[in-house]
Structure formats: C-alpha cells, structure tokens
Design a protein that fits this description.
130 residues, alpha/beta, 5-stranded parallel β-sheet, 5 strands, 35% helix, binds manganese (II) ion
Length: 130
C-alpha cells in the first residue's frame, strides 16, 4: 500500500515539483490549493502525512493546522509545514499550531523526500533508486 500525502499548496510550480518528487519515490499525492479544500479532503482520504504551505489564501497554514488538529481523525497524522518565510519564530509558530516539523522553501529536490519520509511510520514500497 502506498503512503498517501495530502499536499496543501497554492503555488502551482511548488505543487508540481513536490508531486513529481513524491510520485517518483512511490508516494500517492492528493493536492488541495487552499485550506478549506485541504481540510475537506483530509477527512475523506485520511492521509498518512500532510504537507502544509503556510502562505495560503482564505486561511493561512497555522489556521489550517489548528483546524486539522481539532478533528478527531487528524489528531495523529503528521503535519509538515512548508514555508518560504525565513523569519525567526516561524518554526515555533508552526509547531505551536500543531505541526510536527518544518521544511523551508525553495524545495531541495535532493533532500525533500528524505526529509518527509522521516515523519512517516514506514518507507513507501516500490521506492526507486536515486
Ligand atoms: Mn503559498
């Protein structure tokens, strides 16, 4: 069974790159372009991990993380914040909102999937060699 990653990201290029890298390593990706849609999808698909952009329309990533954590079925799903903010305190804000970890943009194609896989209970099957 493939690990399912819910990607909540409004930037098409970032979404494309993250999806490409995750697919290449055997993850199934379900994408949402804003928080409300992501929260709705999360409850339907029950992902193994959520990648959450912080700069989003409608709700920012901190609000989305808090809302997800308030849902019983989402209490233990790893949430990784993805943000281009290089500001001090961002990491703490992400963690305080319920995120388990933090990845900085721009996405590094060489380390992205490795960073994410640390938060998953098991490695994906049919992982390709680098
Ligand atoms: Mn964004």
């Amino acid at each position: 069974m493939k690990n399912i990653v819910l990607l909540i990201e409004d930037n098409e290029q970032n979404s494309y790159l993250a999806t490409f890298l995750l697919n290449k390593h055997g993850y199934k990706v379900v994408a949402a372009a804003d928080g409300p849609r992501g929260i709705e999808l999360a409850q339907t698909i029950i992902p193994d991990l959520i990648l959450l952009d912080i700069q989003l329309p409608l709700m920012d990533g901190y609000e989305v993380a808090s809302a997800l954590r308030a849902i019983e079925s989402m209490k233990h799903v790893p949430i990784i914040a993805v943000t281009s903010y290089a500001m001090v305190g961002d990491r703490e804000k992400s963690l305080a909102a319920g995120c388990n970890g933090y990845i900085e943009k721009p996405i590094n194609p060489d380390t992205f999937v490795t960073e994410i896989s640390r938060f998953l209970p098991s490695p994906p099957l049919n992982e390709e060699a680098p």
